[in-house]
Request: fold
Amino acid sequence: MSGSVRFVHAADLHLDAPFKGVDADDPRVREALIAATIGALDTLVDTCIERRADFLILAGDVYNSMDAPLRTEFAFRDACARLDVAGIRVFVARGNHDPASSRSAGLAMPANVHVFSADAVERVVFERDGRPVCALYGRSFRTAAETANLAVSYVRDPDDGLAIGVLHTNVGDRPGHGPYAPCSLDDLRAAHMDYWALGHIHKPEVLSEDPPIVYSGCTQGLHPGETGDRGCTVVTLDRHGATLERVSTARVVWATSTVSAAGLDDVDAVRSALLAEVDRVARDPGATPGTPVVLRVDLTGRSGAHAALARPKALDDLLADIRGAGLSRDPWVWVDRLRDRTMPAIDLDLVRSGSDFAADLVSLADSLLADPDALGSYVGALAQPILGTLDSKDLFEPDARDIIERARDLALDRLMAEERR
Amino acid sequence: MRLRRIEAVRYGRLAGATLGDLSDHLTIVLGPNEAGKSTYTSLVRHVLFGYPTAGRKESGYFPGGDGRLARLVFEDGAGSWVVERSEGPHGGVVRSRALAGDERPDLVDELTQGVSALAYRIVFGFGLDEMAAIEEQRAAGDDVLSRLYAASAGLRVSPHEVRAALEKDAGEVYTPGGRKRELNTLLADLRATRAEERALKTQTEAYSTDRERLALLRERLPELRDSLERSRSELTALAVAVDRGDERLAAIDGQEESLIGLRQERRRLTEELDAIELDDALLGAAPELDALLDEAPLFVEQAREIVASEASLARASARAGDAAGRSGLDDTALTLFGDNHDDASMVEETREALQRLQLQADNREESAARAAAVAAQSRTAAERLLLPLGIVSEDPADTIAERLAALEALESSRADVGGRAARAFDIPSIIMLVSGVAAIGTGVYVREWITVGLGAVLVVAGLWFLLRARAGVPASLDGDARAALRVLGLEPDAGTLDLSRMRRSLEAARIAVASLEEAIAAHDEAERDAALARGALETRSALWRSWLKERGLSPDLSPAGAATALVSAREARMARQTETELREDIARRASALDGFLERLATAATPFIEVPSPLLRDALPTVANRLRERLTDARALAARAEELRREIRPVDARIAAEDERLEKARADVREILERFDLFEGGTLEDLRVRRRVAERDEADAAAAFEALVGEISALEARLEQGAREQRSVELSLTESGLVERVTDAIDRHLVAACAARLLADAQQRYERERQPEVVREAGRLFSTMTQGRYQSLTVPLDSGRIEAFDCQAAARTSDLLSRGTAEQLYLAIRLGLIARSGAVGSSLPVLMDDVLVNFDPERRQGAAEAIAQLADERQVVFFTCHPETARVFMDAADRCTLLEIGRIDA
Reply:
């Protein structure tokens, strides 16, 4: 068993995952978002073919749910069939979103697809021209709630010239991610693999250079929090080590921006600043040039435009205008959300030092902000009725501090607007 | 600090008007209508807070000419200052300067600190307009109290209004129990979207049966596929066996037929071989005969060449005789003449030499004849020149020389005489004369008398030589000249022209005589050359004749005839040589041919009939006959060998076919045994079993196809359902709606919290600051109403003021009469001012006839209340009613009355 291999490492395709937290009422944006995960799969297949990969590794969560829609299964089968025609094998490890217990339509996958066993670590030898080149070790999740340390059961065969480990896991028990198949870096190193192809963490990351222990990240950002580059890792592996190359596959890039309105006195100036930001993002949306962008923008800073922005519908009108401008860019930029986090151009300390009504108002807000319990009760009392109208799954915890600060600024701005004029 | 004067430089209808000095406490300004009372009230406010800008409803008080300009003069114990506002952008340009005391550039800010323009207008500087407006606003439901409240709180906008606006904003998003609010709409959309999603999910669930069926079918698929493959495998094996068995049987039949054919073929070949008789003696002698036959064509050719050579010999003999005849030589001469190269050279050289010498002699004789003709012509020409001169001597050249000498002498003497002839101008004499005159002039000029003398000498000499030249010397002939004329045959008076003519004649005659002498000499030379050429020709001819004689040839033979004889002799010799060579060759060939004929006859006689003797002409016939005999014998031998070669493979094929036949029979037995058909089994039994297997395979294939068809149909149906993206779109829509709901709730909470913060701040403000104001206003209101009303309260959140009368009965402000309501608001204003502390402490309170709707008693009370305020603050009260002025004068201890007149048009 000798030589070198070139393969593509991808994970967390989450095919047909519903996009959360996005308000896309433009048909073009909607279509792009709906087709994004499947489109990313197509790009992944294109990458395998263009780079003449020996095989493709999918380290878990190909599907977003245990009850994956048929269309998704068909799409995946078609993609594998394309790779089969190109003579590229596909090695799949199931993850917490698509464990072996998932309900499936039982579509017959092409012969080039191999799904790792959920019973034990499976060793598969990859051959080229009838000669073994490398061994792949992998294990699928049996159920979504796989909490055992699966990494410790990976043992490299001494005869393997090259060995690759495939696993869907949370290395180091990272917060914010499900505690699935937890393990440590030492557990992975102890298996003496030449390369670890991991899945589960959506942000691409190289945990170790020697041996390479790599999260390739998800192929398509699934919500506004998953900003920046999303794609796969093209790996060339031989006895001397591995060469890694990142390739973007995302069809839509998420981005967030903060635009300072400080020093901007009117909505026109704010609009210009927003358009400049849209242009900047359109030109440089991270590592994926030429890809449409869904952008979230927060307007910040003490600004003379605060009062104008706080007028009813003002922000909505501005957002509609910026959206139109963003959609005219190529590639388009969809401003998903525009939040006004500006503050009035008022010297709070000066107001606070006075003895008038405004000072009373600021003092009252200060006392609330200084007492988290009182703050929570104060906002909670107002939030309770309106939150009561929501379904349980829509419930959220309002940021009381943020709300009180903005409420204070809004009241002050309304009270003192005429004064300042 | 107090306002001392109000100066309107250019302000509305007031131009150059001044109001003052105002009292520190109460100043009553009494003036008729159109005296400018309201204008003064506005002026103070505008100087402090800015002129009205375009677009404001308020009057701008623009003067007729230049821009607005007004001043206020303030005083305190430290000095006095003027605050002036001139025309300019944004309400004009305000500046302050000191009239006495230190400069206070921030005086306006100090005066207005904590007081907005609105607050000033409502609380500090109000008039009938504001009072009427209050009533109008009341009628319109406006919250006058809140305005006063806001003004008192240092705010331009009423917290009530702001709170109401915020609550409205929040309410537009959500109101408990409210309908058609933004949130309700969004939630309704969200519910509808989710309902559709559920419906779609239910619909998707309907596919679950298909999916389960598909999974079940897929589980059965391998079993059926295995069954089908087994049936196909068995069928294939049977089919292969039957086919192979049939093939083997067919092969056996074919091989048996082939064996019969092969054996027949072998028999035929053997019989043919046995029938062939071979001539072994002939075949044994064949190499020797072949060698002779190979030589035969050569000798046939030689026989033909011998005949041709004999013909050539005859022609050569004829040519030799003919050439000898043409040469005219006998045999000896013929043999010798021309036998070497010298003869031919001699003949040729002689022929060329005689031709050349003959030509040379002819040319020279022709040249001699031409020279004789030239001499005769020269002689004639000389005589034609000499005769006129009278020269007939034998030696004319001497005579001509003599005459030319005489002519030379004569011309010399004539030249000496002709040199002294008279001349009209003598140039040296003239130069001498002019030089003398110039020397005289120069000497006189420079007073050099020696020069003058020399000049005179030159002038005299010049004149002498000039005159001498013009006179000339007469010519005369001497004796020698006359003798010369005689020699020449000329007259003594012969002139120069005659002499010249004589000279030309003599020169021409001399040249002609010289030419004649040369022509005679040339003619003599040509005659000598011609004689020499003729001698050479004679000599060379004699030599040729001598050579012919030596060769025994005729001496008359010319070189050309000798050359012809030479050629003929050569031809005769060459023909004789050829004749000899041909004879020798014929003899050699005839000898070889005869030998060959003998050898051939000896060898061929045992096998064919050969004539004896064998003549040259019979050679081709005998050779052909022998060759045919040999060919026939060899053909028979070749055929016999060919037959033997054909028999060998036939034998091998017969053996192989026997072996294959046995193997095919063994294969058939093996096929039958493989399917347990041992003894008695046939291929027909195998065919029966194949037909059964075909039916089984067809049944299995049909079952498999049916299953695959059902799977395909299910997949197609499921895929069709899967292609619909509605659920994904709904998911996206739901996401968007959730975002909007979250955003709406966020906005609602911010607005609601802002409103509540305002309310809480207002409560705190009212709780902690308002009671004093209300108590003071109640006291003032009681004073104004002569105790009719005792106190006031302002319940929190009511927006109404309650007045309690002396019976402790409460009446809200909206139930009071206009006059009483105005007294109430005046009381509140005064209360606010009284309790405003340091806020606006230096601002004057200006009231413009605000008591006009008060009855006398209330007016008295109000005047007392205002007088009380004036104890603490500077108050300026404008009125057009003298009665009102008197009431104030009575009510106040420190009151100043200023009267102003109507402004001129």
Summary: The two ends of chain B are 35 Å apart (CA to CA). Chain B touches chain A through 68 residues (CB under 8 Å). Residues 182-274 of chain B form the longest helix (93 residues).
